[in-house]
Amino acid sequence: MIRFFLLQNRxxxxxxxxxxxxxxxxxxxxxxxSDIHRAIIARDKKHTNFVEYENFKIIYRRYAGxxxxxxxxxxxxxxxxxETIHLFVELLDQYFSNVCELDIxxxxxxxxxxxxxxxxxxxxxxxxxxxxxxxxxxxxKLE
Length: 143
Fold this sequence. Notes:
Blueprint: E1 2-9, E2 14-19, H1 26-41, E3 50-53, E4 56-63, E5 66-72, H2 78-96, H3 101-106, H4 108-118, E6 119-120, E7 123-124, H5 129-142
Antiparallel strand pairs: 1-2, 1-5, 3-4, 4-5, 6-7
Helix pairs in contact: 4-5
């Protein structure tokens, strides 16, 4: 099960966060985000994108200047989560037509909506890009 999702830039600034379990209090959350960023930024590119952290695993992938990070149970499939990250990036890229960090900052509500259409309660709900993007277009019509 997915515990949380973080989207951070190379400087460690968290641009998006979504918790699927009860999040820690704010001080612990900020410390955890900082520790996770330090752990992944220091890793050599030759190493895997999987890191054991406390009692769960961190699976991350870097696209341009952004790190897409999932915190998952130790027993979860790492490769499946790597594909999950890739599909989420493709969804953002198609929705925003070549997504960048500013799109995420200024349209965070739409990014959260895409994430909610894709992952619900820590489990992947829909894997079809077409279906998710069609739902997003339907929601835009309602606005």
